Amino acid sequence: TLSDKYKLSSEGTLEISNIQIEDSGRYTCVAQNIEGADTRVATIRVNGTLLDGTQALKIYVKQAESHSILVSWKVNSNVMTSNLKWSSATMKIDNPHITYTARVPVDVHEYNLTHLQPSTDYEVCLTVSNIHQQTQKSCVNVTTKNALFALDITDQETSTALAAVMGSMFAVISLASVSVYVAKR
């Protein structure tokens, strides 16, 4: 039964508040849909280990493009990943009217932030909570690349030369046509 101690989130995560060693044991998950039901049993062992004051989380920029940033993160190996409940990746933009927030499952360790502006500074922060409601936060500053133009300079030179040749040919053909027309009159 659900109570103040046990909460079930909309995505199916069971949250046990003020967990104690006595809460160790077997928990059964029942998933139901129109095709039927399925059950899984999980054994939970509570050992009382808390995160220490060291940084348990580090976020990195894997790739920065003009309209996107790919970030990844690592959780310190001294921290049991089973203690982590959910992580949320939050991107803060210098413009206070725009924010970007995404909830990311703990087993995901990279995220692609998209629809960004070129040549813009961003601060990307990742916050991870453990079962004891302790949080760890790691941030990184990154600037998106300049927007790429449709033509490189070498392509522009080629296009300019081609346009000049085509224009010259048009002028010669026009002049020849006018000359033939005048000669027939």
Automatic annotation (TrEMBL):
Domain Fibronectin type-III residue range list: 53-147
Pfam families noted in UniProt: I-set
Classification via InterPro entries: FN3_dom (IPR003961), FN3_sf (IPR036116), Ig-like_dom (IPR007110), Ig-like_dom_sf (IPR036179), Ig-like_fold (IPR013783), Ig_I-set (IPR013098)
Occurrences of domain Ig-like (ranges): 1-47
Keywords, ordered alphabetically: Immunoglobulin domain, Membrane, Transmembrane, Transmembrane helix
Presence of keyword DNA damage: no
Record keyword Membrane present: yes
Sequence intervals crossing the membrane: 161-183
Name listed for the protein in its UniProt record: Leucine rich repeat neuronal 1
UniProt organism field: Trogonophis wiegmanni (checkerboard worm lizard)
